[in-house]
Fold this sequence. Notes:
A 4-stranded parallel sheet has the order 1-2-3-4, sandwiched between helices. By secondary structure, it is an alpha/beta fold. About 45% of the residues lie in helices and about 10% in strands. The longest helix is centred in the first third of the chain and has 15 residues, at about 10-20. It has helices spanning about 10-20, 35-45, 70-80, 80-90, 95-110, 115, 135-145, 165-180, 195-205; strands at about 25-30, 50-55, 125-130, 150-155.
Amino acid sequence: MGHMPFSLSQKAADVLAVIHEEAEDPVMIVGVGDGAYAAMEAAIEEPEIVDRIVAIGAGTLKKGFIPSSIPYSDVVNADPDFIAQQEALMPEPERAEEIFNTQISYLHSLEIDEDFLSQIECPVLLVCGDGDTHCPMVTAFAASRWIPHSCLCIVPRAWHTVYMYNFPLIRAAMLPFMGTSRAGLVTTRKIAYNIEALQRGMDEVQGEEQIPFGKPILY
């Protein structure tokens, strides 16, 4: 589990190490939240081995949007069965709260912006729930604008864990994206009219404190 502070480059290095060990050809990566950011960083560092990415719940991100601390007990209470499963897999389960706090501190300081996203060369399918409080929908729109070869799928009536709300829709978006040749992929149209509205929306949404790990409130 390690003892060093987390970083995006460190997480990408873990992804790349697995790819080098297990894969012979360029790979497709499906990442959720922070896992999607690690996939993006891996694609930037070694573009020749990442063929495409499905990024779920991962848009632009401003430093400080994620709170600097979240009580571990809140996470346990939100889904005790899931946390029990995770701790059972840990080599040092007694350090679960420590690792969680390290992860939150890392996310609090993480920034995903135009400079970062514009470096991604491979196609990226961005999937976001319209009720996501971790990755507000406007941030996914912005990421789509700045990733050169991006597609965007917005899932209605879904929170951050969109696959738990409407998996058939996500599957319908993923299969053609993953099954089409890179030359045949069509990216989301970049409409200049949206730029000002996107920036205004991001400033408004990410100027607020995030609602972490609570039960989603959907209309």
